[in-house]
């Protein structure tokens, strides 16, 4: 597959996707979003890799949607752009592979939404996050969805109503990112995390990822009932049987997708 707005590389069981519009601060144009969705779905279908790392080329991760497309587009054009973004977020959620975002510089508006929608996030210590749409008269209602599911309501509303930046350390404290590291170590630490996850069975992670997001908004015992059914059925899978035997026999498991 050839792309205009993104780059893609694979290293062993890890896929590295790079937003490649540095001259536009990696703005999420409709074209970029469509390419990203297409690639994510292909990765999910082929199952050749076990983890996806999403990062940005240039000085920043992403400044969000391409405002020129919004300013110059018809209402239908703008709707189609936001629908393209919806499909990207759904692809991140629905592919079996965990998606790790590697953040440097800034992640604002829909760029912040990408961070919040991903399964995991690693940030450079000088990275900053914001949902500044309110400052240009376009409240960040779509970024608010995943932002409010990552951090507390009061903090989410503060970001949405002020448009102010959140530091990487604040993002760690409030649950928007998993790790904050020196800029010089960002790529190595992210790759190390991806490599650790890639040692696991993809089919096991796929079951777990789907179940995690299914149960998260359920009432406690509804969630537990659902999770009980999932783990009971999962125990009969080939990789679960292999993993349990390997543990009992004190050896490394041999996953079906290795």
UniProtKB/TrEMBL annotation:
Keywords: Fatty acid metabolism, Lipid metabolism, Lyase, Transit peptide. It comes from the Bacteria. The keyword Lyase applies. GO terms for molecular function: hydro-lyase activity. GO terms for biological process: fatty acid metabolic process. May play a role in fatty acid biosynthesis and insulin sensitivity. Belongs to the enoyl-CoA hydratase/isomerase family. PANTHER family: ENOYL-COA HYDRATASE DOMAIN-CONTAINING PROTEIN 3, MITOCHONDRIAL, PTHR43602. This is Enoyl-CoA hydratase domain-containing protein 3, mitochondrial. It comes from Aceticella autotrophica.
């Amino acid at each position: 597959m050839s792309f205009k707005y993104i780059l893609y590389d694979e290293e062993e069981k890890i896929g590295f996707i790079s937003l490649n519009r540095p001259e536009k601060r990696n703005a999420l144009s409709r074209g970029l979003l469509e390419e990203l969705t297409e690639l994510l779905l292909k990765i999910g279908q082929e199952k050749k890799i076990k983890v996806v790392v999403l990062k940005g080329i240039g000085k920043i991760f992403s400044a969000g949607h391409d405002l020129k497309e919004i300013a110059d587009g018809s209402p239908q054009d703008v709707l189609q752009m936001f629908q393209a973004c919806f499909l990207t977020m759904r692809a991140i959620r629905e592919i079996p592979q965990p998606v790790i975002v590697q953040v440097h510089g800034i992640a604002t508006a829909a760029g912040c939404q990408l961070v919040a929608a991903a399964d995991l996030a690693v940030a450079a210590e000088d990275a900053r996050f914001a949902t500044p749409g309110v400052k240009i008269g376009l409240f960040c209602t779509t970024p608010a969805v995943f932002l409010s599911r990552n951090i507390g309501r009061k903090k989410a509303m503060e970001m949405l109503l002020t448009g102010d930046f959140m530091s990487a350390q604040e993002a760690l404290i409030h649950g928007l990112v998993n790790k904050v590291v020196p800029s010089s170590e960002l790529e190595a630490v992210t790759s190390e995390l991806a490599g650790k996850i890639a040692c696991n069975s993809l089919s096991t992670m796929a079951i777990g990822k789907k179940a995690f997001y299914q149960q998260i908004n359920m009432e406690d015992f509804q969630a537990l009932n659902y999770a009980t059914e999932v783990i009971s059925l999962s125990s009969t899978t080939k990789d679960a049987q292999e993993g349990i035997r390997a543990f009992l026999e004190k050896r490394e498991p041999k996953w079906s997708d290795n």
